[in-house]
Amino acid sequence: MSFSEKINNGKFIITAEVAPPRGTYYQTIIEGIKPLKGYVDGFNVTDNQRSMVRASSIAMSRVLLENGFEPICQFTARDRNRIALQSDLLGAYILGIKNICLMTGDFTTLGDEKGAKPVFDVDSLLMLKIVKTLEEGHLINGKELKGKPSFNVGAVFNPFAGPEKLQIEKLRKKVELGAKFIQTQPVYDIETAKRTHEIIKETGAIPIIGLLPIKSLKMANFIKKLNPKSVPDKFIEKLASAKDPHTYGWEYTLEIAHGIAEFGRGIHFMLVGKTYELAKFIDYLKNESPYNHKF
Amino acid sequence: MVVVELKPFNEILKLISPYKKVTVLGCEIGSGRCMQGGLREAKEIAQFLENNGKEITEVLTIGGTCLIEKVRKLEFKETDVIISLACGAGTQVVAEETEIPVVTGVSTLFIGADCHREVFYEYCIACGDCIISETAGICPIARCPKSLKNSPCGGAINGMCEVNNDTECVWFTIERKLKKLKQPFRIGEPTFIDFSRSNHPRRFKNEL
Ligand code: SF4
Ligand code: SF4
């Protein structure tokens, strides 16, 4: 079953993240995710994440397709004005890319090309509006298209951003504008996962809860600094006293994943490495866990 | 007001290295107000240049340097170069109206609000289609680094902007103010900013 079929049929969804290469050599990346073939439903191909240059997400998505993986191509508003965005969306569709995930994007100065001119001609809501317009058969200026795309559209939600009321209202708007699935920033405890799931479910979209395994105390503190409410103190304490923080962080993540499988609709693993272990865990969820009927 | 920043005196000295006789022209509107290029700073620069072997012809100010009729009335004494401390607009008016070479002693930063002459905040980027009546009089086009007009991004950390962690996310500021005004804010149909209105160079004509 394809990613979009799973979305439409109410199945449990597992996505993972893959970053295009910084360079032209993509083969190792494809090799790296091979263990996840048949386990992960869609791979989010990041679009110059954290404002650092990498190969284009559209090209990498195409390579994934050719290698039998299902890509979810990310598009940020940071680097594209409305001309480039419409053009890239049409181009991606021509290349067979059906799943897209739209977001505003990190600011330029947070990356490694600090002097770049940030575009931000449109925001995530307008990106969704653009997709909707293209799907209706015309450009946003009203000109008719020769052949129209039809995407499986997703958007993102950060449970730790604010102001809360505005964020939730914005989320609602995103769904109204056509976002079918919502992938979230990583959460670090089951209560947040549950609450986030409910907020998204309420809008009518499919919640796919983000998880980012923590590998070290340093990483935990870094994420906590970015989002002070995200990583629970209890977890940090345990991580600090763990013999092998890497393994502890991984097990902790799996525990949350397990919990999400119980009540949720999907998990988005923002992981690097650990592909064999992840495949094993997904195998367990799908075949042996008490929730295997959901997959 | 236009906020400017004085260049380091050494840099100014380098800029005028081919010249001997120097006129320093301050501006009292923006530059003077932010204490980066009024008469006082003009005198300081003159003193510095004199100490470094230059001959000061004149140190003066005419108030607002971007007012063409005032600049036209100016008669410079014989000089090799004019150092203008006005913003980019004022300095260009001076350069246009004289045959003497003009260099700038400041960098123009932004249109800002003046808080007790101590801090200056960028409040407007002259987008050409003011929307702040809908956002409690607070401008998200200028005060959000991403110019997000329809809603906040998902990046605010503890209410602070993801880009500048010492600045409140403008959407928090807007929300707080709306609450105080007891005005509800609804995210309506998202609209595009019409950037054609801020394409430069712009012109504005008064029907006199
Ligand atoms: S909306 Fe435009 S004109 Fe109004 S304050 Fe903001 S930038 Fe200036
Ligand atoms: S955190 Fe707020 S002010 Fe900063 S970029 Fe996002 S929306 Fe704009």
Describe this structure in words.
The complex is a heterodimer of chains A (295) and B (208). Chain A is built from eleven helices and eight strands. Chain A is an alpha/beta fold and 295 residues long. Chain A has a single domain, classed as TIM Barrel (Alpha-Beta Barrel), CATH 3.20.20. An eight-stranded parallel barrel of chain A has the order 1-2-3-4-5-6-7-8, surrounded by five helices. The longest helix of chain A has 19 residues, at 245-263. Chain B has two domains: 2-110, Response regulator (Rossmann fold), CATH 3.40.50.2300; 129-193, no CATH class. Chain B is an alpha/beta fold. In chain B, strands 3-2-4-5 form a four-stranded parallel β-sheet. In chain B, strands 1-6-7 form a three-stranded antiparallel β-sheet. Chain B has helices spanning 9-15, 30-33, 39-51, 68-73, 88-97, 140-143, 170-180; strands at 2-6, 21-26, 55-61, 81-84, 102-104, 106-115, 119-124. Chain A binds chain B through residues 77-78, 82, 103-104, 106-107, 109-110, 118, 120-126, 129, 140, 156-158, 160-163, 165-167, 169-170, 173, 177, 185, 226-229, and chain B through 145-159, 162-163, 169, 171-172, 175, 185-187, 190, 192-193, 195. The complex binds iron/sulfur cluster (2 copies). Residues 144-146, 148, 152-153, 155-156, 161-163, 169-171 of chain B line the site of one iron/sulfur cluster.
User: What letter string, H or E per element, gives the SSE order of chain A?
Assistant: HEHEHEHEHEHEHEHHHEH
Kindly report the greatest chain-chain contact and the residue count on each side. Answer: A-B, 38 and 28 residues
Coarse morphology of chain B: elongated
Q: Please state the overall shape of chain A, judged from the principal axes of the Cα atoms.
A: globular
Strand tally of chain A: 8
Please name the CATH architecture of chain A. Alpha-Beta Barrel
The level 1 CATH classification of chain A is Alpha Beta
Distance linking N and C termini of chain A: 10 Å
Model regions low in confidence, pLDDT < 50 over at least 5 residues of chain A:
none
How many discrete structural domains of chain B? 2
Largest sheet of chain A: 8 strands, parallel, barrel
Strand order within the widest beta sheet of chain B? 3-2-4-5
List the bound ligands: iron/sulfur cluster
Overall average residue pLDDT of chain B:
95
Terminus-to-terminus distance of chain B? 25 Å
InterPro entries (chain A): FAD-linked_oxidoreductase-like, Mehydrof_redctse-like
Protein name (chain A): Methylenetetrahydrofolate reductase
Pathway (chain A): One-carbon metabolism; tetrahydrofolate interconversion; Amino-acid biosynthesis; L-methionine biosynthesis via de novo pathway
Organism (chain A): Desulfurobacterium indicum
